[in-house]
Amino acid sequence: MARILIMDDDPNIHHILSAYLVRDGHTVLQAMDGTIGLQLEGEADVLIIDWMMPGVSGVQVIEHLRTQGCVKPVLLLTARSDEGDKLQGLDLGADDYVVKPFSPREVTARIRALIRRAGIKDEITCGTLTVKPQSHQVWVEGREVSLSKLEFDLLLAFLSTPGMVWSRERLLSRVWGSDFPEMDRVVDVHVKNLRRKLQDDPENPTFIETVRGVGYRLREQE
Question: Which UniProt keywords apply (predicted)?
Fold first, then answer.
């Protein structure tokens, strides 16, 4: 089952969808606007986003996530039924689209389809590293490792795109969100702590390697 983030400014939508999704076995996170949603996005596997939210709109959220390299499945909720609006949402990066008013059973069915399509798993393995995103547990060679929330979110970011280089700026935006401190040093400190806990030698890394002048990446395992 997946961790699903609902971004919608309507409390009734949260109440109804949460009940159905929890009954399906999912963990539900909630945000009443796009700003909070972007802060919680790193903890979710699948995103349900309302088009018309105050402040940062759903379409702006999707556009931001896709430009930041986020590939998580997105289901867009909207009262707009025009074909042009639907195509706009899909073109910006939504994976599916549901028009309000909707059937909660249809939404949960579409979420199940997105999960199957994305191949979301309860457990992620990378060489000798095993991670369970829902329970926030990490093992290296069978030894459980205790990580802080920021360290865990950093690790999930790396695991989402093995082999891809993450600049410090992108990591700040992804992990710290809109409240991130504008200092590259904070990323270096947390990567250092994460490496230490994973017993990863920075000079001869098994997992996280430094790309000088650019940032960090997770080495692809054979």
Answer: DNA-binding, Phosphoprotein, Transcription, Transcription regulation, Two-component regulatory system
Residues 57 and 130 in one domain: no
pLDDT band at 206 (very low <50, low <70, confident <90, very high): very high
Domain extent for 154? 124-218
Which CATH number is 196's domain given? 1.10.10.10
Number of domains present in the structure of the chain: 2
Classified as helix, coil or strand, 163 is coil
**Residue 91 exposed, middle or buried by CB count within 10 Å (0-12, 13-18, 19+):** exposed
Strands in 74-78's sheet, in edge-to-edge order, are 27-31, 3-7, 46-50, 74-78, 96-99
Closest C-alpha among 46, 55, 39, 120 to residue 77: 46
Q: Which of 102, 118, 134 is the last residue before a domain boundary?
A: 118
Question: Closest Cα to residue 153, out of 204, 191, 201?
Answer: 191
Structural tokens at position 103: 């059937």
The pTM assigned to this predicted structure is 0.58
How does pLDDT run across 87-116, given as a tens digit for each residue?
777 787 888 889 888 899 999 999 988 888
| Residue that is written with structure tokens 């998580």 in the block | 72
pLDDT tens digits along 46-60: 999 998 888 888 889
